[in-house]
Design goal:
This protein is an alpha/beta fold. It has a single domain, classed as Rossmann fold (3-Layer(aba) Sandwich). The protein contains five helices and six strands; from the N terminus they run E-H-E-E-H-E-H-E-E-H-H. It has a six-stranded mixed beta sheet, sandwiched between helices. Strand 4, helix 3 and strand 5 form a beta-alpha-beta unit. The longest helix has 29 residues. It starts with a strand and ends with a helix.
Length: 159
Amino acid sequence: MIYVDADACPVKPEVLKVAERHDIAVTFVANSGLRPSRDPMIRNVIVSGAFDAADDWIAERAGAGDIVITADVPLAQRCVAAGAMVTGPTGRLFDEANIGMARAMRDLGQHLRETGESKGYNAAFSPRDRSAFLQTMEQLCRQAKAIRKETEDETKGRP
């Protein structure tokens, strides 16, 4: 399963393109405004407008073998802890080795913005980011399929 933190996600079409190629279901989770789809492999979930409602919904369901797409570092941290494979929309992977530093940098940035030391401007999303995301998604989908096959083999008693 691929879970997408869909509010303001700039790579929804790319997610669908790669997921379709690998026959992996996608769930878009947002507070509002998702375009309906007739594709049975696409699920749209609209959560309440409560703070972090979409993040909580994803974190409660994502686990080993799942892919999560989010720019939200606290959500990424929760999903990594649950065993999911996590990437941001720029193709940045979050894993056990780097999530602690990513969280520390996010918290530092937030502190600097709150104290007025930083204006907190983010770089514009670029074609290079889109390309990096596509490469990362391809890699994660292959890993997810390998995990799924391994799980199926174990269920059937194969080595």
